[in-house]
Amino acid sequence: MDSKHEILTLLRSVADGSVTPEQALLNLKEAPFEDLDYAKIDLHRSVRQGASEVIYGAGKTPEQIRGIVTAMGEKGCRNILVTRISPEAADCLCEAVPADYHPLPRLAVVYPEERKLRGNVVVATGGTSDIPVAEEAALTAETMGNRVTRLYDVGVAGLHRLLSNLDELMSARCVVAVAGMEGALASVIGGLVDCPVIAVPTSVGYGASFGGLSALLSMLNSCASGCSVVNIDNGFGAGYLASMINQMEGIEETEQGEERGTK
């Protein structure tokens, strides 16, 4: 029982009498999580949040990662994200189950399936060195069913590069701004667009950047309204939040269209 659709189907079966309430209750009781001793897999995550549980690969053995995704796959989970996974663990994973590994952001998508992409999320970077974090954000959003436009190396050192992409920025439902150094990109984009901006500070920079702390503080002190900040190098968190914003916008547009159709 790993999706809202399956639970809705079960409830409709109870309503039409093809499934007894007792059978439905048993199915729901068995669903919440599976205990593997070293991990307790949250099988209701997609019901509550719209996406399967995401696996943080760093610190886990290849065998643990393989065991978790295999158990999830047996329950019907697809497009399972494994973040911060080493190349060695990824090789082991790809030998065991269908998986796409992206070495730059160190991210794997297990049991990949095509999804209909909705809306438009823009992921922009200040420089080329920020791309690994940006790709983590972009691939996370794409895996969750969002259309992503990438604008890389458009930092404030050459502002004309960013301004040449105003059409893409203005049509976005959410922008993820990824930058190190002084982290000014998020403020500039925040002053140009009418949608939420998610700022991602990166650890790119010389000594006084303090491993991304300088960019983090700059972004937290942004004077641009509608700009929020995630942790240093947290591309996954930014991509996940961007997906939630984009999907909510899509739901609102659908509901407004239905209301207009009934008038």
From TrEMBL:
Pfam families: AIRC (PF00731). InterPro entries: P2CMN_synthase_LarB, PurE_dom. Coiled coil: none annotated. It comes from the Bacteria. Residues 119-251 form the PurE domain. NCBIfam families: LarB. This is Nickel pincer cofactor biosynthesis protein LarB. It comes from Ruminococcus turbiniformis.
